[in-house]
């Protein structure tokens, strides 16, 4: 059973709250992303949450690259999700905006590379580092007690 409609996703015996910042780039860094291509990309990934349990909550476009704020179940690797997003969007762009293919060699819309970073729903890197560093300390243990004996 999966519940993917809350901030924390529950999937069988697992709970996750993993966010990812992904950036993918058009092949040869060509400035091919216009309003029409943007719309096609957005439509191509619109049903991805219901179909694959991959949520794309924010999308930012530049002329030659796209930024995505995503989250997905830990059963997927970042590379698998990026491959899926690239595949769905490239097929749609070539189908809906075929003139784009004339600007590219080899029939690929996206570069092979990408950028991915994790983002915590609980704080930035410094907050998490401090939390981990202070684990097991007497003052922190006091806060974690449920009952006083």
Mean pLDDT over the full residue set: 83
SSE pattern, N- to C-terminal:
EEEEHHEEHEHH
N/C terminus separation: 38 Å
Biggest β-sheet: count, sense, barrel? 4 strands, antiparallel
How many domains, in number, for the residues? 1
Helix content: 25-40%
- SS strand fraction: 25-35%
Class from secondary-structure proportions: alpha+beta
Q: What is Rg?
A: 20 Å
Regions with pLDDT < 50 over 5+ consecutive residues? Answer: none
CATH fold field value: Alpha-Beta Plaits
How is this structure best summarized?
Helix 1 packs across helix 3 (78-96).
How would you portray this structure in words?
With 149 residues, the chain is α+β, with helices and mostly antiparallel strands. The chain has a single domain, classed as Transposase IS200-like (Alpha-Beta Plaits), CATH 3.30.70. The chain is 34% helix and 26% strand. It contains five helices and seven strands, in the order E-E-E-E-H-H-E-E-H-E-H-H. It has helices spanning 35-44, 48-52, 78-96, 125-133, 138-144, and strands at 2-3, 9-11, 14-16, 18-25, 54-61, 65-72, 115-120. It has a four-stranded antiparallel β-sheet. A hairpin with a 2-residue loop joins strand 2 and strand 3. Helix 1 packs across helix 3. The two termini are 38 Å apart. The mean pLDDT is 83.
């Amino acid at each position: 059973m999966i519940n993917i409609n809350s901030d924390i996703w529950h999937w069988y015996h697992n709970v996750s709250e993993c966010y990812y910042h992904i950036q993918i780039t058009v092949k040869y860094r060509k400035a091919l992303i216009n309003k029409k291509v943007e719309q096609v990309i957005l439509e191509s990934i619109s049903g991805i949450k219901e179909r694959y349990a991959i949520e794309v909550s924010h999308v930012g476009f530049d002329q030659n690259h796209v930024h995505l704020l995503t989250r997905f179940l830990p059963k997927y690797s970042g590379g698998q999700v990026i491959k899926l997003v690239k595949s769905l969007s490239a097929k749609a762009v070539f189908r809906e905006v075929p003139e784009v293919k004339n600007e590219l060699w080899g029939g690929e819309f996206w570069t092979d590379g990408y950028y991915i970073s994790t983002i915590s729903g609980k704080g930035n890197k410094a907050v998490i580092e401090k939390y981990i560093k202070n684990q097991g300390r007497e003052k922190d243990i006091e806060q974690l007690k449920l009952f006083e004996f």
